[in-house]
UniProtKB/TrEMBL annotation:
Gene3D superfamilies: VSR Endonuclease. This is DUF559 domain-containing protein. Coiled coil: none annotated. Pfam families: DUF559 (PF04480). It comes from Mesorhizobium mediterraneum. Signal peptide: none annotated.
Amino acid sequence: MPSRRSPERIARARALRHGDNPAEATLWNELKAKKLGGYKFVRQMPIGPYFADFACRSEKLVVELDGSQHAGSSYDRRRDEFMRGEGFSVVRFWNVDVLKGRTSVCETILAVLEGRLAEDVIASDLRFVFAAKKVGGGAL
């Protein structure tokens, strides 16, 4: 059975996974193999024209890590809204926060996964856009 994804998109996702981002490598060590609360994450998952840094498919959560070049990025806002439209909540952290406060970042991700953080949050060190899960055609 042929793959649903094009060879170009598969190659792009692989290239992104093998990038030299220490923050992504650090967070991946915490997320892989269901280490965080038993939730399964994947890296560089395609969602429409974009690639999510990390995604938990079962809970429809995207985790993005950003460097300083992303500060105030309108591209990232459009990207978040697209993913939200696809039913994914998106949480963004700064690379430096992962490197200096890995435990706090993991606790925040776990709070989202467990439903303890279920509304939009926009702060200098965190951006979370919540996509309400649909039940029977309507939002929760």
